[in-house]
Amino acid sequence: MTETLSQLRRIAQDRTLSFKQKEHALAVEAENMLPYVLLDAETHAALDARIICDMYEGHAPYKPRYVLPDYAVVLRNGSEHLELPKPETLDEAINTLQIAYHHVPSVTGMPVFIGHLDALLLPFCDGVSDDELYRKIKLFWRYIDRVLPDAFLHADIGPTDNRVARAILRVDAELKQVAPNLTFLYDPEVSGEAMLRLCTDNIIACSKPHIANHPIHRAVFDEPGYAIVSCYNALPLRGGAASLARINLKKVAEASASEADFLDVQLPRYVNLNARLMRARIDYLFRQSGFFDGNFLVEEGWIDKDRFTAMFGIFAMAEAVNHLQDVAGRPGRYGHDASANALGHRISARLAELVAREPMEHVWRGFAMLHAQAGLSSDAGTTPGVRIPYGSEPDPVSHVQALLPHHQHYLSGVSEILTLDETVRSNPEAVFQLAKGALHLGFREFTANVTGNDLVRVTGFMIRLSDIKLYNAAKGSRVNTTALGAEAADTVHILDRKPRVVGLELMAGSGV
Predict the structure, then answer these.
(1) Which of 190, 196, 199, 102 is CA-nearest to residue 153?
(2) What is the rounded CA–CA span in Å between residue 321 and residue 333?
(3) How does 430-449 read in b/e, with b if 16+ C-beta sit within 10 Å?
(4) Domain ranges of the chain
(5) pLDDT digit string, tens, across residues 6-27
(6) 465: confidence class by pLDDT, cuts 50, 70, 90
(7) Which end of the chain is more exposed for a tag (fewer CB within 10 A), N or C?
């Protein structure tokens, strides 16, 4: 108790934290003063060893990790609970959304999803000029960043080429804000190459948006569809993710005597233990927390409790493969060697097979969804998800080809961040062709940083390098995720990513 009180006092007296940041940190500490959800001894030991990890969601989960409301419901019906009438104008629709966001929980204390914004707002744009639309979106964008300053907060646009999507892209490139994060849902049959080119030009300007492979994602989900939120997470719309727990593949490999032992003994064991952890946490949320009982989000149809999945995360694929290569006496490294890459692909296929054998109650479709987890800022000595270690990345085309076979297995999200040399500013066609080729080949998401930009991606969320500089000078930050970015720069060396010149972009665009 003395240690806990000291931690509470440190938070209360931390001069680098804003009032809201202190409030959230104190709430997290208070939750973790409660007993942990009931686990069996073997699962608890694996959690204590951090071979499996609960993502520090809290000892007693009283809200889902990610909530994805169908905001079309409140725009169509208004809200009795919030005493909101059905909006009739664009101003009223934006105002309704702004109010709605404050009532949507997540693990961050803020919403992680703010809607398919172009689809939501287009019906209110009749009679609104392009200039008016631009000015209203700009005010809306500034509101989001200033009032909900968290880089896990995410908006989606697309797949159509439309006025609202273009206005959002224009504003995003101009303001270069941390929030909201942004994904364009790209469909080559619907979006058109002009829209894809606008997205890749925006990436050059501000490292946004993500570009999601809409046909591949859409095939996984039923009606009312899906959304991309937080760090490349593909989840059921009108639901979300009840919980995310993950396996440290590096530690599993280190506990294995051989590749066969890893695939046939140790990996099945830890998949089962991680599933036990997830079941215990999800059971508490649904049976004991009361979150879904009498909640107006459920009663008014914003969310459906049967549409919450569970995210079965993995990370440190690169380190696991390299360790197993060493055990077998093979010199090839992950991301660069065909045999090492093939081993990684076998591990992903094995994971998908094992997760599909672990049924779960209170989970959409009865099974967790495999997820290449984008890492924590404290993950020293490991690489997020299935990514190639920072600083050792090959050329962008080889990079895409090395990771491509993984993508079919990670239905709730898998990603890479391609860090490109700033010379692409003089050759924007290169980024366009690289994105087009990666998506054509089957990448679920295309994402890139361009050196020289102040706004960069960490694991999936955004930071501004100028904010990191101020934070490291003990001046704090109004953006919640700056601290995580500063820690990631120091601990997992995200700023060591290797900028690469795109030299084979036409090869990529041709689908070779």
Answers:
(1) 102
(2) 8
(3) bbbbbbbbbbeeebbbbbbb
(4) 1-33, 68-229
(5) 999 999 999 888 898 899 999 9
(6) confident
(7) N
